[in-house]
Amino acid sequence: MAGDGELKLLGMWTSAFVLRVRFVLNLKSLPYEFVEENLGDKSDLLLASNPVNKTVPVLLHAGRPVNESQVILQYIDEAWPDRPPAVLPSDPYERAVARFWAAYVDDKVRLAWLGILFRSETEEERAAAVAQADAALETLEGALRECSGGKPFFGGDGVGLVDVVLGGYLGWFTAIKKLIGRRMIDPARTPALAAWEDLFRATDAARGVLPDDADKMLEFRQTALALGASKKITL
């Protein structure tokens, strides 16, 4: 069967992209070994498994590497079709919609997140990046209402592709809250998305995996900045 073989995930505890893979493995109750990588001293296994980008996450399935987080998420869904829940909808149109919004998150939210934490040299630059994030999240507020049909998650009653992709950033949103003095997903600005965040953080998929120590995250940020991580961010 396609899903046979042991699973090993190469990653870092802070990585928004690694976290989304861990969420889906947890959702499907798939046992795996998590191997923590060092941002400043990447392992030979990582470099051999992802020689093109040399980044995490890498999922090793029976020794064969699968790279890039959204590719990995869809691979897991396809390799274990009998392991519910499905991350992608069965309907082709709904799958396309989910892929569109997942790509939107990794375009608009990711760029704003990088700007706030890693690419702002002045308060004015950080404020501009926060404004970009606010605009992106306001758009996602509307997308949540449309995709969920009034249900709690982008995936409806349960967590789906867009939920895990956006959910991966929530650990860093904890750190951003300390920097800017308010929640990144602001209940006053995006109430549906704020309710979604609280529910997602409480899921079995996220509990115990999603970082929630702002000081520890910001300390890691300083290490990443010293290593020039903003040039090829894999956090």
Could you tell me how far the N terminus lies from the C terminus, measured between alpha carbons in angstroms?
A: 33 Å
- Total separate domains: 2
Major sheet strand order: 2-1-3-4
Spans of 5+ residues with little confidence (pLDDT < 50)?
A: none
Tell me the name of the CATH class of the largest domain: Mainly Alpha
Helix and strand run: EHEHEEHHHHHHH
Helix content: 40-55%
Mean pLDDT across residues: 94
In total, the number of strands is 4
Q: Calculate Rg over CA atoms.
A: 17 Å
Principal-axis shape: globular
Assign the structural class, choosing from mainly alpha, mainly beta, alpha/beta, alpha+beta, or little secondary structure.
alpha+beta
CATH architecture group name of the largest domain: Up-down Bundle
Domain GST C-terminal: 91-225
Enzyme class: transferase
Function: Is involved in the conjugation of reduced glutathione to a wide number of exogenous and endogenous hydrophobic electrophiles.
Family: Belongs to the GST superfamily. Tau family.
Could you describe the 3D structure shown?
The chain has about 240 residues and is an alpha+beta fold. Helix content is about 50%, strand content about 5%. It contains nine helices and four strands, in the order E-H-E-H-E-E-H-H-H-H-H-H-H. The chain has helices at about 15-25, 45-50, 70-80, 90-115, 125-150, 160-165, 170-180, 190-200, 215-225, and strands at about 5-10, 35, 60, 65. It is globular, with a radius of gyration of 17 Å. The model has no long low-confidence stretch (mean pLDDT about 95).
